[in-house]
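Readers of this paper often ask what the protein records in our data store actually look like. Below, we set out a record of this kind in full and without editing:
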Amino acid sequence: MNHSRWKTLRERKLAEGFTEPADVTEARHEIRLSMALAQAVHERRTALGLTQSELADRAGLTQAKISRIEGSDTVPTLPLLAKLAKAMDASLNIALDGDNTQVTFTAHHSDVA
């Protein structure tokens, strides 16, 4: 089932009074957080013109770890996030406000790799 069809079915069930179990709602929220971080890392890395391997070298990580972060396959620790931000010469900004999650990297200097 493609995403748009799934979304339509979900919206119809919710309109009919279906209530999603709390654990499913929580899992969906955690996935959104992970995906927001993954997108922010990917966008900053590509803005710098870096490969995953180059970013990994800068951060003292492996390319596989960068791939897992960008693929939303892992939840990084705060020290790891600090390494990433430093390696990308940026500040990591995370805004959590209910269902509205924003994750961005703000460059410290010009984007010269």
The mean pLDDT is 86. The radius of gyration is 17 Å. The longest strand covers residues 90-97. Residues 12 and 18 are 9 Å apart (CA to CA).
